[in-house]
Amino acid sequence: MLKTEAFDVEAVRRDFPILARKVRGKRLVYLDNAATTQKPTQVIQSLVDYYSRYNSNIHRSVHTLGEEATEAHESARKRVAGFVGASPKGLVFTRGTTESTNLVRFAWGERFVKKEDTILATTMEHHSNIVPWQLLARKQGAALKLVSLKPDGTLDMESLEGLLRLSPSLVAVTHCSNVLGTINDVQKVCSMAKAAGAVTVVDGAQAVPHVSVDVGEIGCDFYAFSGHKMLGPTGIGALVSSKETLEAMDPFQGGGEMIREVFPDHATWNDVPYKFEAGTVNIADAIGLGAAVDYLERIGMDKVRSHEVALVAYAMEELAKVKGFSLYGPSDPEARCGVLAFNVADIHPHDLATILDEEGIAIRSGHHCAQPLMRWLDVSAASRASLYLYNSYDDIDALKAGLEKARRVFKLCAAPTCTGRSSWTTTGTPATSGSWRSSTSLPATPTRSAGTR
Amino acid sequence: MQIRVGDGRTIKEIRFTGKGCAISQASASMLTELAKGKNLDWVKALSKEDIVGMLGNPELGPSRIKCALLGMKVLKTGVYGYLGTKMTDTED
C-alpha cells in the first residue's frame, strides 16, 4: 500500500517533546489520542508565557497585567470560535465537553424541557452525551429514547425518522463516535430534528480535533468540544451556540463575572457568553487552547484529515492480517475518524493493553465511556487505537507487531482458520465440585472451580 | 462466586463464574483454591497484600490492582452479606 504523507510528520513529531520519551526502554508509540492528545511546545510555551509574564485575573483588573491577560483570553476565544465557524459571542468556555453538555442540561433543559417531553440521543453516544439527558429526563419527568444503529455501525436514519414523530424537544448526537469511529451526517440529523421542532446538541469531542468543522453549516443549536483532545491543555473546552439561544437560557453557575447587577434579593445577568462563565475562569488553559488552534490551522485541517484517512486505511489493511483481529465500525476509512476499536480473539483488552505497554505502545482498553454501545456490540470491553497528526506508518507497524506478540503470549494457535486458544486450556483437571448446584442455570461463561484452571 | 458454608463458619465448597482479564481470572481462581476449607473470619481478614502475595508479588499499577482484587472483593461482599454484618474495609 502506498504510504503518502500530507505533511512532514517527522517535523511535526519534533514539536512534541513527549514523543522523544522512552517507555519501558522502547520508543513511545502513542495511540490513545481519543482519550487525550499530546501537547506541542507551542502550547506548553503559551502556558509558561502566561504564568511567567502576564498572569492576572481578567475582566476586572485595570492594570497592565490585567489588560494583557484579558486581551489574550478574549483573543483565544475569537480564534477558537473561528476555528469551528462560530461567533465569539456564541462561544462559552467550559471545562470540556462534559461540562458543555451539562450546561445545556441545566441552563436550557431545566427551563425548556417539559413533563412528558421526549429527549432523543443515539446508541453510540459517549456517557457525556447520554447521562446528562438521563438526569434531565428524570428531573423534568421526560422520557429519553435512543436512536438505533445499523449493523455497520452507522446511525439508523429510519429509526431516527420514527422517533422524530414523537416531536422530541431535544436531539443529542455525536459528530464522531469515540468507539466506532463513525462520522455522522450531523447536518442531516440536525435538519431533520429541526423540522420536527427539536433543539439539537452535537458532541464534537472527537470531531473538532480531526475534521474541519463549521457549526453554521451543521445547523445545530449547541456544539460541544474539549481542548485536551486537540493538542490543548486539560480543563478547557467550549460550548458553542447562537447569541440568541444563549440569551434565552437561564444562567448555569452563579457567582462573580456572570452578573450585571446584584441586589440583596436578586441579580441581573451579564451579556453572553460571560453570563455562563461564573467565577475566575481557566485563563491559562483558554490561552493554551488558542495556541493549539493556531498550531492546527498552521498545518491545515484538510491535511490533518488526509493524513489520518491514509493511516486508518493502512491500519485497517495491516491489522486485518493479525489472526483473530476484529474491528468495529464502518469498513470505509473515509467514513470514519482516526479511531480503531477492536478485539483480538478472546484476549481481554486489559491484558492486550498491558502487553502492548511493555512495547512502549499506549492504547486504551475498556468500555470507552460508551456502555450502551458496548451492549449493542455485545462485548464487555474493546481495545482502541486512536490516531493523530503525529502518528506515523511506523506506529501502525509497531501496533501490529505488538498484537502478534500478544497472540504468542497467550499461546494462540497459528492456523489460518483458528482464532481461539490452542489446546493448553483443556489440560486442566476437571472441576472437583462441578456438579453441585447444577440444576440452577449458570451463565454460559466459563466456570472455574477450586482445582481447575 | 458461590460458596457452601459448613459447620456454620467453614467454606466447604467454593467456585466462581467469570469473564475478564487474565489477572482477574487468575486471582479469583487462586483465591478459590486458597479459601477452600478456611473459616469465614479468614475471608474477613484478607487484605490487598495477601492477594498480591498470592499472585507472586507482580508489579501492578493503580489500574490493574483492581483486576487482582476483584475476586477478593466479591468474596468478602458475599461473606459479609451472609453473616449479615456491615463491611468496614476501607478502599485504598
Features:
heterodimer; A: 453 residues; alpha/beta; Aspartate Aminotransferase, domain 1; Aspartate Aminotransferase, domain 2; 2 domains; 7-stranded mixed beta sheet; 4-stranded antiparallel beta sheet; 14 helices; 18 strands; B: 92 residues; alpha+beta; Sufe protein. Chain: A; two-stranded antiparallel ribbon; 2 strands; globular
Q: What do you see in this structure?
A:
The complex is a heterodimer of chains A (453) and B (92). By secondary structure, chain A is an alpha/beta fold. Chain A has two domains: 145 residues, Aspartate Aminotransferase, domain 1 (Alpha-Beta Complex), CATH 3.90.1150; 255 residues, Type I PLP-dependent aspartate aminotransferase-like (Major domain) (Aspartate Aminotransferase, domain 2). In chain A, 36% of the residues lie in helices and 15% in strands. Chain A is built from 14 helices and 18 strands. Chain A has a seven-stranded mixed β-sheet, sandwiched between helices. A four-stranded antiparallel β-sheet of chain A has the order 13-14-17-16, with helices on one face. In chain A, helix 2 runs antiparallel to helix 10, helix 11 runs parallel beside helix 14 and helix 12 crosses helix 14. Chain A is globular and about 75 Å long. In chain A, 47% of the residues are buried. Chain B has a single domain, classed as Alpha-Beta Complex (Sufe protein. Chain: A), CATH 3.90.1010. The longest helix of chain B is centred in the last third of the chain and has 20 residues. Chain B has a two-stranded antiparallel sheet. The mean pLDDT of chain B is 92. Chain B has four helices and two strands; from the N terminus they run ββαααα. In chain B, 51% of the residues lie in helices and 14% in strands. By secondary structure, chain B is α+β, with helices and mostly antiparallel strands. In chain B, helix 1 packs parallel to helix 4. At the A-B interface, helix 12 and strand 18 of A face strand 2 and helix 1 of B.
